[in-house]
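Thread: Newbie trying to understand structure tokens

Hi all, I'm a second-year student working on a class project, and my supervisor (Dr. K.) asked me to get a predicted structure for one chain before our next meeting. I've only ever worked with sequences, so writing a 3D structure as a token string is new to me. If someone could post the tokens and maybe explain what I'm looking at, I'd be very grateful. Here's the chain:
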Amino acid sequence: MPCHEELDVKALLRDLRKRQLAGYDCGDPCDEKEPDARTYGLYLTYTETLEEPVAPYASGDPCGQQACEPTRVCEGYRFELRCECEQPVRPDVFNRIAACIGDLKQAAVAMSKAQSAGVQARRLYSAAQAVRAEAPIPFDDRNIELLRKVTPELARLNEISLEDDLDENGLPKRKPDERELRLDVARLQLLTGALTRFRALPKDSQAEVLKAHKGLAELLKDAEHTVAEAGPRIEALVPRVIKAPAARTEAEESVRLSRKYVVGQPSEERLATVEAKMVALNTPVSVRQLNRMKSDAVLLKDWLLDKLAGADNLTRCDLYERLRRVQIDAPPGTAGDGDLAEINASAGAVKELVQILVEYLIDCICLALNPPCQPCEDRSVLLACLTVKDCEVTDICNMSRRFVLSPLAMRYWLPPIGMIGELLDRLCCEFDVGKLFSVRERKPVEGSVDEFVTTGPEQMVITRTYAPILAEAEIDEDTALVLKRFRIEPRDLADVTAFSSNLALLSLDAAAVEPAAVASRGAALAAIIGRRLGGAAPLEMDDATIRIPVAEAVADEMSGVRKRMERELNANVERAVDAALSSARPELSAAITRELGGTFDKRVAGDVKAAVARELTEAKLRRAVQGIDTIKALKEENRKLARELKRLTTAVEALQKGANP
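---
Reply by user tm_fold:
Sure, no problem. This is what the structure looks like when written as tokens:
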């Protein structure tokens, strides 16, 4: 609108009634008094008017254009009233994201399987690389410290009696929550791995370790007893407590492998198998676990195929073809390492599926953030809602309009919107998901082995894959009302929390963020807020109750980060030195060759010159000696010739004088 305008509401009401009566004008609408107030919507409507008609040229064709044709379209607008003030609901960003996800229950199941299979595949792949490289698996002071720490922690589970604490169904009455039971399974895996590493040592090495560490034999015996006692309790608790099928399978197989390598007495041949080495690397795996992981991968692939088959507006155009090429049941290798080949093939397929899933979700979210084009059927824009009583406007509501979110308006309402736009541009356009999934594959094998044997219970797969789920029965009425405002029904709460928590864990694992560090920060913050909510004192950063817990949480986190950075730094330095030597070796060899070659050439040239000089001198001397003898002979010959010449001269003189010779 170019300027301020005044509107005749009575004329607008008369026009509204005329349009309702199909063009029939019933006169002034204010002649009839209405006792109740009514609300109308004031709309601004775009109009086009054809003007400046021009007669066409006479062509003599009876079928040609005979009437005048307009030559100009004048654009304008007009005001009108409508009976409805509510505008139709248009899809928002949450609706479009929900459309990408589809059925919430199926999406929650697919995300849960992707999260658990992805974490397991990463660890299996790295452990298989270490086994294939035949990297030594050490048993050192860190393993002894692990036995001292983890054995009493797992022993607390053994306080549950399998005879006195069972109900009528044969299940324990006392049971930990799911996260605590997963931690106990992780402790069982760690003790099984440490004991397997010790038993895999040669007999003389075992004797040396026992001799060097007093009390180790008793510590090993306590760990074996704790593992043996914890197995039956975990078997009884897992079906009742752990909900995820993959985690249940892993827990049951961990108990079976602990009996195989700890309770029993494995032979040297058994300890040399791929299965035993994976157990020693704190990565227990069995055929049943691989089959479970592959079945989950098949379900995830089918879900993604269904989503990508109907998606025609994704920016990553090769997702569907990449997904079709993923082979979950890849044939095993033929080089005597069939187990490792199957592990690598299955883990590689799962990693590719998870990467495709992440790229698909990023595309969905980014496309949802880009507002779609609005429908063009209605060219009107709601300006305000008018309340009219007795043909008098009693109220005007300007905020009922749908504001045009132009760049100018967005920067007016949200000053940091420019920064948000840059972040979205980096996420949707510049972010390379492939680098995110391949960054941890560059670690050296020695660093991977060291990381495996020093893993804590919180870093084990069964603990990292725990995603808390909030059920409908766990919320109150106020929470249900809040959820409904976000269009979430209480019956869908479990699926929503399952999908969101598994997606968060999947993102943290892909970004190499430790959930334990995030949990420690959250626990410290929750403890601080919990202590302060009931008091009247304000929160101040100088307060010791805030500073000390935060410092402890940050110190614990930084300690782990520092150790990890030291390991990676040492590995990076070694790789850098090796790379520098490899790159400098040709130039160094050439320089040494040139230096030695030049010195050798000079030395050889000097030796040759000296030898030639000696040869020349000797030849000259020999020739000189031979010349002296020749001179002597020539002198003697000359003397003889001189005597003969003298006699001839005397004889000639005698003949000339006539005397006889």
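A couple of things are worth pointing out once you decode it. The chain has three domains: 9-84+374-402, 92-135+284-371+419-512, 138-280. The chain is about 65% helix and 5% strand. Feel free to ask follow-ups in this thread.
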